Amino acid sequence: MTFTSIDAWWWPFLFILVAGWLATDAWRFLGVYFGGRISEDSDLLVLVRAVATALVAAVIGNLIIFPSGALGATPLGLRIGAAALGFAAYFFLGKRVLVGIIVAEAVLAAGLFYYG
């Protein structure tokens, strides 16, 4: 069974839904199962958190340096500046993620308005 094996309009959506569910939910269930048994200070959990943080940082870096779509039309300096100002707002305004996201998006939107 492949992505192109059925020629129905709904098949790609069902394939992506099932494939995405199978790829992620098994790990989520295992995480919940083992997460209650592992100490928060254990070396294994510290490693898992470090890997998860590194993966998120890699995705963000990839979106900033090699964007696609409408974001790819923006100057690199604007993308880096928006990320830097968003991080500064997060860090200096109480370490609230939502504040950092809003500031970064506002800077990016203002830059798009100015350059667009």
Task: Provide keyphrases for this structure.
mainly alpha, transmembrane, 116 residues, Brnchd-chn_aa_trnsp_AzlD, transmembrane helix, membrane, 0% strand, 4 helices
Query: pLDDT below 50 for ≥5 consecutive residues: which ranges?
Result: none
- Total discrete domains: 2
Strand count, sense and barrel status of the largest sheet are: none
Run of helices and strands: HHHH
**pLDDT averaged residue by residue:** 89
Account of the protein in words:
This is Branched-chain amino acid transport. The chain crosses the membrane at residues 12-34, 46-66, 72-92, 97-115. It comes from Mesorhizobium alhagi CCNWXJ12-2. Keywords: Membrane, Transmembrane, Transmembrane helix. It holds the Pfam family AzlD. This protein is mainly alpha-helical. It has two domains: 1-37, no CATH class; 40-115, no CATH class. Helices cover 72% and strands 0% of the residues. It has four helices and no strands. It has helices at 11-35, 43-65, 76-92, 97-115. The chain is flat, with a radius of gyration of 20 Å. The N and C termini lie far apart (45 Å).
